[in-house]
Recover the amino acids of this structure.
């Protein structure tokens, strides 16, 4: 599949197989010498590992450029790719970097991503490569870049300008020790509100910076498309992630303020979150601006159509984060410090999904239906036939007859996990349980968890759910030190990675044997048969 081309007929064949399994691993966690996982050799080796261990699914987190807290769920643009994932070795092979340039990388921890260090050495190398590309690219490569820019112009031009202006204001904010400089709070009023004269002036002021951002997106899409094709040709499907909300400090909101709950000055009026519950007496105030659904419906859901189609150019199946938000959202007045004084606001999710289905046919979506799920959410999910999610940690920590996360309540049209990127690892979770909860689990299962990560993985494989997906940390039997994210915290997350020495022949054999024993092994049929 060429970069920037959506083959709808192929996409409709990439449905979730009837009984299968896979691994959850974000590309930033891949091994490699340059401080962060990339789309280079290690990514291809990981696909080979999936194939060798009989796995069919590779689930990832959002691929967008991470914003606040380095979170992929708080991106500067919902449809752009993360430049930090670009493989420098591939740029050397393409002639845009000298081999000696890679020696500039500082020594890195094979278990942790150092985002701060990346900014000081990888981004300058990417800038050097992009300038070399713009100066020397000729023939088919230059034409491919220009075609890419033309095909993605509906979002790429605005994104590149937004990031270029943001770089300038971020430098000013850093000099003033001002943190959290969003476009609607720190930028000059005229450019924050996209006044035409300001747009023209800033386009001149930032010079060639937007062109560099365009090259980085070209690099990302070129490398990711090749990797996805490699996976698909070997029968591996990629499950991507669609965060329901976007970050306030993003090109999405700056360019389309009328589609969000903002006032005439670009300030938030309503923000997203969840109400108080057992886990938090004040709820969770996420702070993302809520959507102006009336405006979106009047536009025929055009913004959502473009966003879903853009993601389906990169992945085979879409996991919709916070699916319940397509039935109703918890709307919190922006001036409220907590989520206590919010209210449920209905959302036209059914109309949106009907529109999507008319455009692309069967929707290869997976609903993240965790948390407070009401009958209207279940009805929306089931009306479109989207698989839901089941978490064993949630089931085993509260063993009650009506807990749908316990194995006896799993339904076929669902995907079962030990836990997700927001949970502790299986080993970390079990180690932190009280003696009483461990006893309850032993009584429920008939025996104690002697090897918690693989015991939970076996329960996933045994499940009647159509797919079982296990975080890579649990495959490697790692503890809390390998946790990817702790919700409601803003520092220290998204940093876990691992060295390839962890993947041994014995591990591959044992994982493949368990997968085959529970009839989830990869089908020998070609991808087009799914």
């Amino acid at each position: 599949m060429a970069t920037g081309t959506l083959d709808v007929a192929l996409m409709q064949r990439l449905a979730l197989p009837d009984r299968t399994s896979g691994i959850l691993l974000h590309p930033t966690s891949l091994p490699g010498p340059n401080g962060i996982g990339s789309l280079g050799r290690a990514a291809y080796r990981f696909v080979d590992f999936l194939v060798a261990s009989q796995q069919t699914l590779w689930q990832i987190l959002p691929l967008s450029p991470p914003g606040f807290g380095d979170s992929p769920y708080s991106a500067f643009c919902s449809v752009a790719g993360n430049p930090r994932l670009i493989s420098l070795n591939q740029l050397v092979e393409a002639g845009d970097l000298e081999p000696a340039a890679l020696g500039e990388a500082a020594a890195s921890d094979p278990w942790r991503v150092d985002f701060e260090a990346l900014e000081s050495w990888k981004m300058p190398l990417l800038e050097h490569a992009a300038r070399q590309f713009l100066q020397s690219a000729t023939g088919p490569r230059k034409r491919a870049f220009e075609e890419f820019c033309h095909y993605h112009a509906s979002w790429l031009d605005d994104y590149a300008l937004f990031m270029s202006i943001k770089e300038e204001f971020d430098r000013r904010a850093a000099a003033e020790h001002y943190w959290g400089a969003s476009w609607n709070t720190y930028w000059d009023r005229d450019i924050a509100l996209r006044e035409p004269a300001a747009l023209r002036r800033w386009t001149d002021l930032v010079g060639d910076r937007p062109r560099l951002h365009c090259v980085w997106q070209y690099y990302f899409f070129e490398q990711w498309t090749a990797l996805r094709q490699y996976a698909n040709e070997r029968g591996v499907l990629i499950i991507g992630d669609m965060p329901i909300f976007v970050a306030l400090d993003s090109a999405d909101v700056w360019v389309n303020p009328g589609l969000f709950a903002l006032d005439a000055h670009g300030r938030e009026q309503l923000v997203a979150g969840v109400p108080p519950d057992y886990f938090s007496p004040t709820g969770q105030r996420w702070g993302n601006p809520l959507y102006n659904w009336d405006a979106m419906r009047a536009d025929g859901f055009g913004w959502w159509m473009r966003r879903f189609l853009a993601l389906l150019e990169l992945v085979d199946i879409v996991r919709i984060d916070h699916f319940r938000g397509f039935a109703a959202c918890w709307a919190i007045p922006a001036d409220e410090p907590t989520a206590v004084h919010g209210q449920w606001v209905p959302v036209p999710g059914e109309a949106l999904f009907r529109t999507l289905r008319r455009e692309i046919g069967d929707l290869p979506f997976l609903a993240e239906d965790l948390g407070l799920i009401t009958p209207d959410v279940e009805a929306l999910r089931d009306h479109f036939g989207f698989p839901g999610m089941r978490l064993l940690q949630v089931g085993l920590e509260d063993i009650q007859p009506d807990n749908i996360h316990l194995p006896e309540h799993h339904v076929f049209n669902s995907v079962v996990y030990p836990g997700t990127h927001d949970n502790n690892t299986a080993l970390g979770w079990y180690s932190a349980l009280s003696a009483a909860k461990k006893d309850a689990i032993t009584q429920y299962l008939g025996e104690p968890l002697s090897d918690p990560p693989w015991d939970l993985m076996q329960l996933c494989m045994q499940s009647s759910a159509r797919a079982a997906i296990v975080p890579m940390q649990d495959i490697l039997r790692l503890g809390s030190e390998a946790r990817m994210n702790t919700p409601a915290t803003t520092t220290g997350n998204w940093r876990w990675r691992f060295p390839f020495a962890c993947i041994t022949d014995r591990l591959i054999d044992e994982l493949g044997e368990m997968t085959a024993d529970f009839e989830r092994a990869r089908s020998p049929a070609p991808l087009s048969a799914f």
Remarks:
- Confidence is low (pLDDT under 50) at residues 1-14, 524-530.
- The CA atoms of residues 86 and 220 lie 6 Å apart.
